Amino acid sequence: MALQNRAAQDEVIYGHIFDAILEQKLAPGTKLSEESLGDIFGVSRTVIHRALSRLAHEKVIVLRPNKGAMVASPTVDEAKQILFARRVIEKTVIELATENVINKQLGPLRKLVKEEQDCFARGDRGTGLRLSGEFHLQLAEVSGNKSLHSFLRSLVSQSSLIIALYESDTQTHCSYDEHLALIDAVAAKDKERALLLMEHHLDHVEQKLTLHDENTKSDLKAVFSNVLV
């Protein structure tokens, strides 16, 4: 197999696993067998390992010596650090986006938000969550800074794991309205308004999370309260 083709395989498999994490199809703590994934995708374990290594570098999976790979499961403290880092990066991204945006980039952003809205409207929460993450990544592309885009890609996928673990309200989704408002602010090159909107948007994401140590453990008496012995 040519090197270029092997690289293409790595990219495709990486993309499938990355999307599955954003869509919360792969829950935190899920074991990722190289042998099983190789059978599923019809490639060697070596190819799978390269894709998993890239995901491990982005901290969305954990490679454990002699135990294989598993989807990362951020602790409460780790979640808080990830969300703080994302705020810092998103602030810089939105500042640069308002400076560097060109008109032809606005159409694809609006189309993406429309697809996100349609997904939530028909109850396809997983795809809606993935598109919500992709919106932030497209904004990073608009910023013109490839390093920020790469860093944010890791933070967005880790945020998806945090939401899967700690979100207490899965019924309310107004992200697409907030995304449209962000596009309008970026299009107008209104940096102050864009920064404020991004801050409020991330506030709303975090307000639905229950990031308290005491809430990360199950109360056994409550779990088994209706069990008859």
Report the helical percentage.
55-70%
Average of pLDDT: 87
Radius of gyration: 19 Å
Uncertain segments are 214-221
Strand percent estimate: under 5%
What kind of sheet is the major sheet?
3 strands, antiparallel
Strand line-up of the largest beta sheet: 1-3-2
In the CATH scheme, the class of the largest domain would be: Mainly Alpha
Shape category: globular
User: What is the N-to-C order of secondary-structure elements (H for helix, E for strand)?
Assistant: HEHHEEHHHHHHH
Count of DSSP helices? Answer: 10
Assigned CATH superfamily of the largest domain: GntR ligand-binding domain-like
The count of β-strands is 3
CATH topology of the largest domain: Four Helix Bundle (Hemerythrin (Met), subunit A)
Going by helix content, strand content and strand pairing, the class is mainly alpha
The CATH architecture category of the largest domain equals Up-down Bundle
